[in-house]
Amino acid sequence: METLRDRTPPTFSRREWLSLSVGAGATMALTPALLAAMSGRQSGDKPAANLAKLKLLHRAIPSTGEMLPVISFGARALKPPADPTDTTALKEVLQTHAEHGGRVVDTMHGGPQGEAAITKAANELGIQSKFFWTTPLWVTTPTLPGHDGPPPKADPAAIRTQFEAKLKAFNVPTIDAAMLLAHTDLTTHLAVVRELKKEGKLRYVGVSDLLPPPGMKAPPGMPDVFARFESMMRELPIDFIGVDYSIGDRRIEEKILPLALEKKIGVMAYFPFDRSRIFKRASETRLPEWAAEFDATTWAQFFLKYVVSHPAVTVVRTGTTKAGHMLDNLHGGAGRLPDEAMRRRMAELVDVLPPTPQPKPQVVTMPPPGAQGGPPGKAPPAQAASIVLSAEVLDRYAGDWKDPAAGTPVTIRRDGTKLLIKSGTAPEGPLVARSETRFTAPWGAPIEFHVDAQGKATGATVEHGPFRIPLERQ
User: In this model, does residue 468 exceed pLDDT 70?
Assistant: First the structure.
């Protein structure tokens, strides 16, 4: 005779779940039986009718006590060949997020295209004011190769200009949280965001950083990320930190998360699926039956509930372009959570899964830093062929130059029929002539010299990607 114990609730893989809920319209038409399966209950159990109203767990922002749903949506740029101007899929995700209790929308790792797409989608739906927006805010001054001094100070006016542009794009009176990047000029950024908070344009401030892969040592001269986090959390007036945290990468449990509790700093957990690697590790393993004890019916919910269950975590950022995945993620922040003993059991299970797949060797096809290039997947525009210039023309440019913002010295000298350039401590290399005034540096960046009516070189501009670095003659 069948008993309730024998009636194991069905589980769904992410692919199976997506096939059952295509689009926001489908997610709103889920049957009680399917919702029951996702919550670990049978369709005949009570109170199945209440399952359609997903109740997301909430956590308090430590600095103010404001409550936030524990699962957020992380905006992502659509991959080619998808049209980045087509916001149909993102609107379905946003609707699903909002209609099931989601509120936090984060644009930290979506890049400019991802942020533009998600703000466009929210505005087209007219629901931009429903969300708690978190966005990166950072301005850096690019430096030339070989710069070995301190990074140049950020321009406060540029920081404010960037913020005002975001405020206009989001179409909201206030941005909820600005996340500063740990490797930027934090002193200048913090001074600007304090002013923005006083003006009522910004509510919270955080600092974000990315963890190096497990087992990887920081290169010489690079700061230790964990030590930098501890220093920032102890010394800076911040409301949040944003950092990688997943059951597959638990390194911040040792010091960072306990310190967040001690200093009353909120934690935005990034990459809870270990950058999707955890799904690959679990692909040949069935979800354990005991996952039903904390209402997890998919691997996504299993992984999310581990992160959510840590008391230091305020919000878990999940990124997707599929409404079905969004609803699955939201269920990872609802229902029962694992206790400490169960968390240890979950970690032990993950630790015996196949190791994280190693990336295959790749051939680097990206242009070198500073080189001009076209959209991803397209070949960069062809450069003009190199030409030979007279010694008289080359001598115009020989001499000592300097990047005025960073102070990096640049030396150009003629060697027969060619020019050689040395930037800071970088090795000397050839400047390839493309015209009488335009050259390509050894690191791939175009350099345009400015010549007056008398043929004297008065200045130069290094085209460093989207940036323009001026050179002054010494």
Answer: yes
